[in-house]
Amino acid sequence: MFKSLQLKILVSFCILNLVACGTLGIMVYNSAVNLVTSTIGTQAKAVIEMARNQVDTEALKKVINEVKRLENDPQRVEKIVSMPEYQSIRTKLTTYRITNGIKYLYTMAKQDDGSYMYVIDGFPLDYSGSQISLPGDVEKEYYEDMDSAFTTQRTQIGQLTFSDKWGANISTYVPIFDSKGTFVGIMGADFDASEVYQILDTNKKNIIALTISILFISAYFSYIFSHYFLHPLRQLTDKVAKVRGGDLSIQVEVTSQDEIGQLALSFRDMISELQVMFEQVSHLAYHDTLTGLPNRRSFETELSAALSKKDQAVAGAVLFIDLDQFKAVNDTWGHDVGDALLQEVARRLVKIIFGYGMVARLGGDEFIVLLHKYESLSTIKSIAIQILESLQPPITIDSYQLPVTPSIGIALFPEHGKHPQELIQKADIAMYSVKQHGKNSFAFYSPTLEMPK
């Protein structure tokens, strides 16, 4: 077809480079998406399973049966919403959704005709916006993972999805069973992945642009100097194959200033950008995007490592910190000011805890501290007092004086627990006891805090 060897080399190399770079771009993008989905999905699974365990299944069954019974009643919604069981479950779901930063949290059941209906949503009882799903509302769109959760009665973690209406989300569905093991329905949660989606979308465009640039550069230089390219081009092609296989650790040496050198330099830059992209995704998986602090996943990993140390004499503490007036700040001055306030609180906490342990942000206005080792309880008390004093004066943000104080709950290990979730929960209980007794203080966990009042 082509009589010119130079043209054959040009066409062959262009096709090879297009396939290699295109395949590499698709592979890297899909790998990044899978990494994000797996990381956030695993964390989401643990969070929603804990939410499911807080639901009274017998009360939920009663609500479901009443929704079905009142199917043709024009006042069905009002009657269902007035049920004490409905209000109790919805209040718990609302609290858990807000505490864990879940975008949407809801329960669903299967109707006799095979359709899926919403039962209880995780919005506040006084919420009347358009995003809420009312009791008996039927899901008109088909979601494969939701259908699989109903069909298999097993937990399903969805893929990263984007729509103009709902934005970027990762959905997770877990089955709900009653005390006898009978399937009742599912609990669904949608986790906001907008920031991750934006980064992936930007990098996808960069990969496409870089792939096209490399293609044109390689075509130009191979056309002019193809007879010089054969040997070094084979070496570069071998490296492309390794990268396509997922190896981003290869070193590309630029040994000349000619076109081959330029191509090698461009390829090396592409690998560097891919490495940066993977580092960004990895950072997002373990850090809070607003404050830059470690997130819940990172904190639990660090706490698990501390609890698994063989030296049982090493003691530590978990401090659960909640900002008392943060909601008023958001409502009065807006979320931008609230975000700036959280960043300033994070900086102050890091300065105080430096050398003692780590600070993480759980979400919303909640922070958590891990003290790896302490000499006595007075050390912990001193740190708690420093935190209180650092936030005692109003914090100035954009000329606004923001009054915000912390409530601090403290759990010690190993005496208060030997598992991350147990310690976090007990520190949370201690923190709520501070809330109930005037806020702006600290308290150590005690079993008496869990006794019925």
Task: Lay out the secondary structure.
Elements: H1 5-53, H2 57-69, H3 76-81, H4 84-99, E1 104-110, E2 116-121, H5 144-152, E3 156-163, E4 167-177, E5 183-192, H6 194-244, H7 259-286, H8 296-307, E6 316-323, H9 326-333, H10 335-353, E7 357-363, E8 366-371, H11 377-390, E9 395-397, E10 400-402, E11 406-413, H12 420-436, E12 442-444
Parallel strand pairs: 11-12
Antiparallel strand pairs: 1-2, 1-5, 3-4, 4-5, 6-8, 6-11, 7-8, 9-10
Low-confidence stretches: none
Overall average residue pLDDT: 82
Assembly state of the chains shown: single chain
For the terminal residues, how far apart are their CA atoms? 89 Å
Total of DSSP H or I helical runs spanning 4+ residues: 12
- The CATH topology of the largest domain turns out to be Alpha-Beta Plaits
| CATH architecture assignment name of the largest domain | 2-Layer Sandwich
Describe the largest sheet: 5 strands, antiparallel
Helix content: 40-55%
Counting DSSP E segments of at least 2 residues, the number of strands comes to 12
- Give the CATH H-level superfamily of the largest domain: Reverse transcriptase/Diguanylate cyclase domain
Count of spatially separate domains? 3
What strand line-up does the widest sheet have? 2-1-5-4-3
Q: Which sequence of SSEs, written as H and E, runs from N to C?
A: HHHHEEHEEEHHHEHHEEHEEEHE
The global form is globular
Report on this model:
- The protein is α+β, with helices and mostly antiparallel strands.
- The protein folds into three domains: 5-29 and 197-286; 54-192, 2-Layer Sandwich (Beta-Lactamase), CATH 3.30.450.20; 296-450, Alpha-Beta Plaits (2-Layer Sandwich).
- It is 53% helix and 18% strand.
- It is built from twelve helices and twelve strands.
- Strands 2-1-5-4-3 form a five-stranded antiparallel β-sheet, with helices on both faces. It has a five-stranded mixed β-sheet with strand order 7-8-6-11-12, sandwiched between helices. Strands 9-10 form a two-stranded antiparallel ribbon.
- Helix 1 runs parallel beside helix 7, helix 9 (326-333) runs antiparallel to helix 10 and helix 10 (335-353) packs antiparallel against helix 11.
- The chain is globular, with a radius of gyration of 28 Å.
- The mean pLDDT is 82.
